[in-house]
Amino acid sequence: MLKLYRAGNSICTQKVLITLAEKWLQYETQDIDLFNNEQYRPEYLAINPKGVVPALAHEGHIVTESTLICEYLDDTFPAPRFIPQDAYARTLMRKWSKAVDEGLFEATRELSFSAMFRERMRGMSEAQREARFRNVGDPNKRARFMSTYELGVESPYVLQAIAAYEVAFRDMEKALAGPSRAAKDWLVGDQMTLADINLMPFVARLAYLGLLDIWVAERPGVLGWWARVQELSSFRTAVPGPLSEREREAMATYGARIHERVRERRQAYLDQLAVPSAAA
User: Fold this and answer.
1) CA 191 to CA 28: how far, in whole Å?
2) Which of 26, 154, 177, 201 lies at a C-alpha separation of 20 to 30 Å from 234?
3) pTM of the predicted model, to two decimals?
4) What is the mean pLDDT of residues 224-242?
């Protein structure tokens, strides 16, 4: 039996939930309350020493890291298949997964934190905030949290997030155009793959924050892809389905507060790229 350790509105959990839904798999769940630091309790650290979600238990094994969990599910339950059989296509799929893990994960966290979780932490006592920062074992992650808490959307890490999404959406638009400029439905080949599944929750978070238009308003390929994603029953079950009205309202409200400044910082970033260097 599959057991998924998950958290509400966790983008990494949502990747796994979409994969499970696409494969029509039965599984048990255990919720981990991240805001109350349940991920740092000894019993959960014994499952995932990093203190993050999700984690998957199956036949006596524990699999961590959402990208690896999705690949494990596809290897273990290969019908329908979401990892391409062709070696080059499989490499392209993993390149998208790498972009998510190495860029968009932190980008989404920074934008989400600057928009709404920062406000929630402001409502804590100083001792509670210090405890939360102290519990973050990774010094780099702690530095990012503290910078975003103190500076909000002005944090240099938020600028990095803006740039990461710019690169991702630029590359998506190019991939969806196809080599002959004929529009494609999915990022790799003719069928949906884990490349698409891994990206879905990250694009969705921008949409719920009301920030997605900043990057994709003039990218028809990405807009078409996003429209197709929203029609998938697996996506609807895994991402919008579990969200409460309160969560939706919070994301929309807090995202609206930073929308204009995020738009301005993106434009400044693009303007800087357009200026020739002195050595050019």
Assistant:
1) 29
2) 177
3) 0.91
4) 97
